[in-house]
Amino acid sequence: MFWQAVGAARDLSRAQDIAGVLIRYGFGDLVRRLGMADALGKAGKVLHWQVPDELARLEPPARARRALEDLGPTFVKLGQILATRVDLFTPEWIDELSKLQDAAPAVPFEAVRAQLTEDLGEAPEAAFAALNTQPLAAASLAQVYRATLHDGREVVLKVRRPGIRPTVEADLRLLTRLAEIIDADMPELHRYHPQAVVREFAVSLRRELDFAAEGRSAERIRAHFADHEDIVIPAIHWQWSGERLNVQDYIAGIPGRNLGAVDATGLDRKQLARCGADAVLKMTLEDGFFHADPHPGNVFYLPGNRIAFIDFGMVGRLSEARRYEVATLMHGLVSGDSETVAAILLDWREGEDLGADTDPARLHNEIDAFVDQYKGVPLKRLSLSGMLADLVAILRDNRLTLPADLALLIKAFISLEGMGRQLDPDFDMAGEAAPYLERTMIAHQSPAALARRGWRAARGAADLIAGLPQDLSALLRAAKRGKLRVEVEVLPLKHFGDRIDRAVSRLTVGIVTAALIIGTSIVMTVAGEGLLAGLSTYALLGFLGAVVGGVWLLLSIRRSNKE
Question: Which residue intervals define the domain ABC1 atypical kinase-like in the entry (predicted)?
């Protein structure tokens, strides 16, 4: 199964590495079910199935996190993406995956120099007045260096690790094939949407490898905050920036995790909490383009109670319609309108149909009970992250999955409230969000917005009517030529048909094998010429054919049981 999926020999060595790490951390059963063990065995690779005692004692989420760390940058990034899918994984998995640190041993500067010179168009010593060759930070995809421009400004250089893209592309190919196998042969994992998650991850990772795209995201958010003096987004120096290099202003501030330094410098924690909340709420509910990973490592506190955001490799986008849906949902939660909440959640489900495990009546009852417990509770006593976490738990229990943009939004809200309460234990996230939710709902129903949507709808209807005669003409021509076809594909029946086909094939081989055995027995009783070692040649050939058929049938049944 996996042997055919790997396809190219260039990926086989990486597949062996992946299988070895999974086995070492106690996921050998997954390796077997994916067919990786058989594939690598055919290639002459030896896998050691012993799990160290220390790792065997770890809980599955911890073992998974350790395995992802050992698998390298692609899988660390995958774990970080999965940590945003609060609708798919339980809190213990989310907490463990959130511990994945995007850090790696630093590559010596001499290994980076040639690529840096190529991207700058000149030697680094010529491009900058000063350059510290000791990295400020070393992550899985990049290293960061501090430098000084010839005009005296301080900048940082984010340099992509040399040779990282081929490794990432090989990992993405293997992940894509593994997701296809899981979707086809592991029905119990369908609710995790493996192919959709891998597609989303591949797009996100390739975008993160393009530092020019990160620079454009930073510039876009910087423009949105041009009139906000309390929010700082570092400027990008495009004359040196590109796909593998990002040069931006250096931020001299207090890291978000160093709350002791915040108190020592006399900054106002409450003001910082409100400032950060306003920034993220503006990005999400007003601008529709937001920093999707606002954790303390990507935040700096500056004099004057200002906040700086860095690292825009992971961003989220929300359309105007989606922002209105979010505002309506939040308003329904606070006002106790369970019907509205349930309707929006059902609209957000991925896929056209509800899963077999989803009962709409049960979902409505659970949401009604959930909303009822918050009726009459003042905003300042509500925990927005707690409400969202409980709501997402209802989705998980009912086998409903959020679209990726909303999963990012909810994770950003939960991270934001957590950071706000670290700064200010009395931080009122729901109260801070209320004005933005109200403005979003009003803006959606404003005359300008209604006119804009009406114009789009009218233009679409006009295009449809204008193209109707041509479409009908093409349909009639196809019908006249006998080319009009209606195709209906029922996937469960197709899967059942495939199983019937395999069963019939095995039954046929079994009948032929049995016939050969009976025929051979009859021929062996006939005396005459053409004997070999006292046996009829035809009898011997029939016996060998029966043996081959029987062995094939047994191997086929064994392989089917494994799958």
Answer: 99-343
Residue finishing a domain among 102, 129, 150: 102
Q: Is 419 in the same domain as 497?
A: no
Q: Does 310 lie in the same domain as 440?
A: yes
Give 207's Cβ-side CA count (13 Å radius): 17
pLDDT of residue 394: 82
Residues 169-190 pLDDT 10s: 888 888 888 888 887 777 777 7
Boundary (domain end) residue, out of 51, 76, 102: 102
pLDDT at 38: 59
Identify the CA nearest to 288 among candidates 316, 261, 247.
316
Adjacent-strand bridge partners of 156: 146, 248
**Which residues does 430 contact at the CB level (< 8 Å), separation at least 6?**
334, 379, 380, 382, 383, 384
pLDDT of 558:
55
Do 418 and 539 lie in a common domain? no
Number of folded domains that form the chain: 3
On whether the CB atoms of residues 441 and 331 are closer than 8 A, the answer is yes
Given a cut of 50, the residues of the chain with pLDDT beneath it are: 1-8, 43, 350-354, 531, 561-562
Asked whether residue 304 is domain-assigned, the answer is yes
293 labelled catalytic: yes
In a domain, 487, yes or no: no
The token pair that represents 309 in the structure block: 């955001």
Predicted confidence at residue 371, as pLDDT, reads: 77
**Domain for residue 478, yes or no?**
no
- Burial annotation 265-277 (CB, 10 A radius, 16+ → b, else e): eebebebbbbbbb
Instruction: Write out the DSSP string of 35-55.
Output: THHHHHHHTT-----PPPHHH
This prediction's pTM: 0.71
Q: How far is CA 394 from CA 210, 358, 365, in A?
A: 37, 11, 11
Same domain for 499 and 436, yes or no, is no
Query: Do 419 and 539 lie in a common domain?
Result: no
Catalogue the E-assigned strands of 341-430.
none
Indicate which residue of 293, 311, 347, 353 is catalytic: 293
Residue-wise pLDDT tens digits, 254-294: 998 888 999 999 999 999 999 988 998 899 889 999 988 77
Write out the residue range of the structural domain in which residue 527 sits: 493-561
CA-based nearest residue to 160, from 69, 241, 251: 241
Q: Would you say residue 316 lies in a domain?
A: yes
